[in-house]
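To whoever picks this up:

The parser on our side crashed when reading a file containing two proteins. I've narrowed it down to the boundary between the first structure block and the second sequence. Both blocks are reproduced below exactly, byte for byte. First block:
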Amino acid sequence: MKQFTLFLVLLLPNFVLAQNIPLSRDLEIAYQLQLKEQLPLSTTAIQPWILQVPDSIVKTNSSWLKRKILREHLISVNEDDIRLTLDPLVNFQGGIESVANKTTYINTRGFILRGKIGEHVSFESTLQENQASLPPYLDIFAHRYHIIPGSGRLHGYTGGKVFDYSMSTGYIDYTPNKHFNFQLGNGKNFIGEGYRSLFLSDESFAYPYLRITSTFWHIKYTNLYTQFQDLSKYQVDTNYFRKKFSTMHILSWDVTKNFNFTFFESIVWSGKDSLARRGFEVSYLDPIILYRPVEFGLGSPDNELMGFMGSYRLNRTTIYGQVMLDEFRLSDVLKGNGMWANKQAFQIGIKSLEPFNINGLFVQTEYNKARPYTYSHFDILSNWGNYNQPLAHPLGANFKEGLVHIRYQQGRWIGDLTFISALYGLDINNKNYGKDIFKSNDSYVQYYNNITGQGLRTTLTYSNIECRYILNRLTHLEAVLGILYRKEKNEQWTQRDQEITLGLRTSIFNKYGAF
């Protein structure tokens, strides 16, 4: 570990001092591209990564303003045992959507405060305030669900075309020794090696959580306790949103240096049922894996999910996959009868750092599939969702998807391409065909012969190309030119979006809306 820390100091002088690598696909790729020695697969399988990463500033004779914009943190303190940085968070973006002949924009202002106290405690706090005029497909999404994908609830929603929303995140992190890490925060987590996760992704809004990570031998064991929210308050006479809770166990084992096997389980339950206000179920605080006996002992109607994940690394190429089992009846699976309660999701993917010895290149291709009714539950408050968005894949269930992600960097220039092709079945004629995880699975359309894509058969083509120039390596301030094309088509309608944008943004978070 000492050799690895020294290695980081030599290679990565421009990374931030916080202990968490930001939950950003782009930063994770950039980070791995700079490493000659690779991180353990048990580390990369659960995000944000928990690592000690040093921070430094290149001194120059430039003016104060130029240094702050292009080379340094806005405010930096490094005295005794206290280290702090404060930087602005911005996304000033303007564009034209040519199909609807619409002007689009995003106006984001905020800050990110990171710090470390001594050798064992670190923290982070972010705040963003946003106004946006969105391309038509996201405009439709915002009107339907009253949220912006991954970015929070609309303020003072009046059904207009300009949306106002905000998000704040933060955590405090305590690492007493090399075996344990404790993190209490309000934010997001991601489980998997893929572009998507079929276990837990960062697609929904931030939520309160407690994460306990234990590392010993070749095993990393994570307990994640969370509180989610159901936004359907219009269904009840109340002024607050209903809460639901989840406990997750993730056991990640590096069987060899190049092969990892991960077991995932989660239980999710409503904070209040028809009989009483439950709150956080104390029995589910048990840190030991395998919930089913506990759930059975409670006589519980709660929703349990279980999954397996594997990854194999050969040189700088990783093959990975996930299997999610929401409900599983082996006899019906073997018969292939399409029984509605066989609710599973599958992922297979491959990603390569610098294939064909091309410096700065990253290529990833991935296939995802979720059967109808996966992630839903008979109790609509116990589905695998938060803030009107799925906690796993943004398409919910009843879909097949293939995607390609290519990133190429030379110096400060970055080119990024994401291409997605998907097939899914939408609900039609007031029938539940299994895509909407927020509907009760008791309203299934048929007992047998359920197939992926049933319902209103819809195809999706999505592509996003970005050309970026890094202005400040420390704060990740970038100038961005983007081109978006999206087409959603079925027998009843066709929705097209074509947008070109130009902007200035702090690229430390993932972009959402790739669906």
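<<boundary where parser fails>>
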Amino acid sequence: MSDSYEDLERKLVEMRAGYAEHLPSRIEKLSAQWQRLKSLPGHMEEKEAVIRETHNLAGTGESFGFSKVSKVSRELEQVLNKLWKSGDDEQLEIAKGLFLQLAHYGSQDADVESMAVPIMNPKVVGKNWSADKSNRILLVEDGKDFADELLLHLEYFGYEIALLNSPENLAEKVRELSPAVIIMDIMFPSGKDAGLEAVSQLKMGLQAVPPVIFLSERDDIKARLAAVRAGGAAYYQKPTDLYQLTETLDRITTPQEEFPYRILVVDDDITYAEQTVLELKRAGMEALCITDPMKVNLSLAEFRPELILMDLHMPQCSGIELAAVIRQQPTYLGMPIVFLSADVDVKNHLEALRQGGDDFLVKPIAADHLVTAVYARARRARQLKAAMVRDSLTGLLNHRNIGEQLGRDIARSKRSGNPVTYALVDLDNFKQVNDTYGHGVGDQVLVAVSRLLRKRFRNTDTLGRYGGEEFAIIMPDTNIDQAEDILNDVREKFALIQHSSDKGSFRLTFSAGISAFPACETPSMLVKAADEALYWAKEKGRNRVRKAEVCNKDEKKG
């Protein structure tokens, strides 16, 4: 059963109220434990429990509107660690003062106004427990405040969370849910390594265990090494950077689809060429051979190879001459060309490289050597191309390439008759984020936006960073009303996400303008109409999506 937007807002209010109600008693209990233990030797397990509770307050206070509680708790944690290691009287006096501050700030009202964001047109934004288990996460965590915060955060990014308060029934829960990932705390009341031990036992009892992300208050090398030995896929110290944790979940649960490398073999020896193609195909690559070098341009255009494997000596033209012809065409300037020939003359090898070749392999060559060499160079070529066409921060297409893709999608839609919708998304008041919290936090927000967009949109949609805090989205086979619903859903989810920084937590919204083909007939018309709709959304108060009502038919670039 899914939660409505109102349900989620109600839960947030209830969580904050509950936290505020119980905070004074939590601090009073913590202070009493400390008073009893402060001058006693030993009792390390009880002292660790005091530090753990202090650590929890530091990590959760700010999230519920008690930023001063977080700040004092963070200082207190450091002081208690020093005190119980050294017994220093000066640290004892500092701890007394910090406990007094903690009690004072814990009894004050929460400052939650800055966390409230007005949301328009509420829709369903909660989790929908589906049959698809690829986004299902099992969280094993006994800290209620941290668990609640993490549950809400991950739900905003489309994950489905099951919570287990103890690792005791881990195997049973894994069999029941078949989660894609387990997020496991290491320390529990039953033992400081209880989480590690539970995962180790799980691996002994189950044939297939999902990846495990460990959480811990410890950051020492022994704890990290133990997590590695238990087979941990990742390790995060508390308080946890939820953005980094989500990024790791994205990487684990959504493996990138690896398309086969495309190799064009140009060799006048048909038998050898076909054998080479067979070996490359057996290794999982797509390969095409041509024996007539005069047809290379046609094959380049239709097959779109990522690497050319070319003989040096061929009738009508040599491989060196053909490489020069290919290099004269800007589209193929970066195309890797590897020469494959029985020619052992080093001078010819060097001349081939001077004329545009990237490497030279000598026939005869073992099949595994050939496959390894071609695979490595094709992979490198794909990585370089990706670096050239994608924004380095977000991984989305850059401005130039999102524009080129829009042109291709419109051309395809003209043939099919299906619509294409184009959207411009711009973060509201983003300059204030950079000015207040710093550009590092601003970059973190941009990454969060790109991650949310990748989660919500289809593989057939194209996402790009248009510039600064502005993003572009191309949605083939989608009409403008469908696009409006999708963007409003994403907008509402994004507005609920809490962004963290050393200077405090905050929330952010975005506005969007959308236009569609065939109402707008060209790429420039689509961009101009979407930009004007976005401007209207900003003028009318931000945090909204606007459809372009008309499309200016002139060809002036907007």
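After patching the parser it read the second block fine. The mean pLDDT is 81. The longest helix spans residues 5-37.
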